[in-house]
Amino acid sequence: MDFLKFKNKKLYINNIDLKKIVKKRQTPFYLYSLDQIRKNISLVRSSFKNFNPLICYAIKANSNLDVLKELKNNNLGADVVSIGELKLALKAGISHEKIVFSGVGKTYEEIKYAIQKRILSINAESINEIEIIDKISKNLNKKTNIGIRINPDIQAKTNKKIATGNRANKFGISISEFYKIIKNKKKFNNINIYLLSVHIGSQIKDFNVYKKVLTLISKILTKLKKLNHIIDHVDLGGGMGIPYFKNEKKFNFNKFGELVDKFYKKEKIKIIFEIGRFITGNSGVLISKVIYVKKIKDRYFIILDAGMNDMARSAIYEAFHEIIPLVKNSKKFSKKVEFVGPICESSDTFGIYNDFSLLTENDYACITNCGAYGRTLSSNYNMRPFIEEIVFDKNLYKTVRLRQKIEDLI
Fold first, then answer.
1. Domain encompassing residue 258
2. 361/339 same-domain check
3. What's the gap between Cα 148 and its chain centre?
4. Which residue, of 278, 313, 344, is where some domain finishes?
């Protein structure tokens, strides 16, 4: 987070000492910076010089209502993958005309609701789904705009658990099947296939892989013209990665923007992005207290009160976030330290560090870059309550989601 700085060995967000915030509330808790979100949106927009794409924020990354309202105030749309996310987007005030519905397993209820709400596009991922959309539209006496998500069979360099664009993945329709659908589109009287969607994965650092995607889409658009079918929108998905440690490679959004600009000049087509992590990932932190410092033969275990139920990325993806103390100590641990949570699982670990600032029990640690796939992946595992969420705006902060009570959970 750009607004997270050390001053006199104390960690500040904007001009407020985080230790002062911690004293007033129970840990762990999430904290989000709206200033950082606005800065990220500005960076994304400035990278596209010749056109104004619709940015549909991927709500699965962060579903906090106040965060979504801020995105709405910055004219973002929403990419949703469930009826719950769709209803949340509408409650946040996001226009139905700026919402796309993705996902391989949309139910009858979800499809019917999306049709009734007249959203921008239901992005279908199988012929079965297209048939259901057409059937429901007929029953409702409506003509529904849909997109078709293709599987480009392009391998992005990322964690295999978040790769979505090769033929081994469950996502999308093969290109050959897509052409068959277009050739037989007359059998679907109640849908209009007016959008082409593609998404190759998440946490992608190398913008060059998108060259393959754009080249492929250009070929498909040329082929569609020969089939007398015109596409109005191209949904390029998202997946732009962020650095989780200071020395990691950053996604070059300016270079990526140049690629998309060239594509736009050639195709002159409306473009949609489904960006999640890049907009909110570095806007959030997780503040946790040290419960115990446990010494064993080769390391110290720093046992935090935050667990994998609160922040699951490390356990699921072995994706580790940089951890920093709220107060730097001039003394350091004599051995390596491993930050772990209280959950009864060996996978409840947040990373191993050498030469870490000395911590003692009741000190605090900050797990950085938790603004995406932090709270949304949380659970009540081990009967642990969902934790508080706080939003920072300039030098003001407020609780936007209360800590869950164990009694209510029971």
1. 34-278
2. yes
3. 21
4. 278
Domain identity same for 316 and 361 = yes
Is-cis flag, bond preceding 243, omega within 30? no
| Helices then strands, each counted (H, E), the chain | 12, 20
Indicate whether 171 pLDDT > 90.
no
Instruction: Establish how many alpha carbons lie within 13 A of residue 107's alpha carbon, considering only the half-sphere containing its beta carbon.
Output: 5
Q: How far apart (Å, rounded) are the C-alpha atoms in residues 315 and 332? A: 27
Pairing mode, if any, of strands 284-295 and 233-235? unpaired
pLDDT category at 161 given cuts 50, 70, 90 is very low
Set 56, 344, 366, 370: catalytic member: 344
Q: Is the pLDDT of residue 207 over 80?
A: no
Annotation marks residue 370 as catalytic: no
DSSP character at residue 383: G
Number of separate domains in the chain: 2
pLDDT class of 90 with cuts at 50, 70, 90:
very high
Tokens of 269: 């087509």
Query: Are the beta carbons of 47 and 279 closer than 8 angstroms?
Result: no
Q: Are residues 248 and 258 in the same domain?
A: yes
pTM flag (> 0.85): yes
**Token output for 76:** 């973002």
Q: What is the CATH number of the domain that holds 324?
A: 2.40.37.10
Q: Which of 278, 311, 332 is the last residue of a domain?
A: 278
Per-residue pLDDT, averaged over 149-166, amounts to 59
In which residue are the tokens 């993945």 written? 169
Domain match, 267 and 323 both: no
